[in-house]
Amino acid sequence: MSVVITGIGIVSPAGIGMDDFACAIAAPPRPEAGFRVPAFGLEEYVGNPSSFRRVADATKFTLAAISMALSDAGLDRDRCRSGREGLLVGVTHGAIDFSTRFHQGLLLEGPQGASPLHFTESVLNAPAGNAAIAFGIRGPVHTLIGEETVGGNAVGMALSLLRSGELDRCIVAGAEEWVDIVVNAYDRVDRARGMGKHGSPPPAPLGEGAAAIVLETASVDTRRRAASRATIRGVVSRRLQAPGMSATVEEAVRAVIGSAAYRTEEIAHVVLPTGRYRRAVELGTVFALGERAGGIRWIDIAPHVGNPFGATGLMQVAASAARHAENAGQCGLVLSCGVEGSFCALVTGSEGR
Fold first, then answer.
1. Sign of the CA dihedral 54, 60, 64, 66?
2. What CATH architecture is 230-349?
3. pTM higher than the cut 0.90
4. Is there a common fold for 3-224 and 230-349?
5. 3-224: what fold?
6. How confident is the model over 187-210, as pLDDT tens digits?
7. Which of 113, 190, 214, 331 suits a disulfide with 7, CB 3.0-4.6 Å?
């Protein structure tokens, strides 16, 4: 069963909205740019913005991205109430700042210092829960927790739900917010592991933002006569372990291309990971694609958005969809790799491929 992307919403350091994001990643990165999302309000994205005025940035980004994805898909953002729509949100760290404030109050002042306001946003399912309320989603709502690969894993789960016939459409989102505690923690871990030394490229700095896509089966898409951004053809997940990381990537890339019923010669672009172990992923992909590797477009969004962890996978899918918009008939490969060695490969196609 073919599954199509009918809507995309992006909140990123490179721009808010799919058009701005696509233009930014197609241009050279700005050397002075940081990896923070520019300030914006929720007024144009949700019907009752005052209800969400105190939410964490991860939730705010998620609400805006989902709203844009629904609008892009031609769906009423206030009427996802049939029970046939599902929501999957991937997160990595959640609202660490809110968690810190909550536990600080608890430790310093006891139970009286534990703020309910901080607690509600500190739980990892806050973005999904708030989005379900904001958009009236009555179908399955799930939060997936993981590394940079969590977005790809969420897409894989959405494919299963759609192909089972349980849902007509599924909104898949991923979110991350920038917190200095997380930045400092990864800096220490990377130094302890020797990342960026001995000729290896340094990891991309922490980014933030959210991305959301609307997935529908081709039959539902045809009935609605919605425009297709791209198709999702297959998802494969693996665990990378030294010293055979590249070999595992090679096997996974071949497997996902085969599951999509494509040949390596048909892959026209590859979206590279934003996280660690990029060199091993690139090497394994080159081995898998063989001579074809020299004739494809390699897309790297890290210089534009950093490493936005929970939002990474969906931003990568959006980058692949942008490439499909420029060159119809292509097949794409989206690769993500987690800080602890998780790996996800996803194949995208244009309508009719």
1. negative
2. 3-Layer(aba) Sandwich (3.40)
3. yes
4. yes
5. Peroxisomal Thiolase; Chain A, domain 1 (3.40.47)
6. 888 888 777 665 567 788 899 999
7. 214
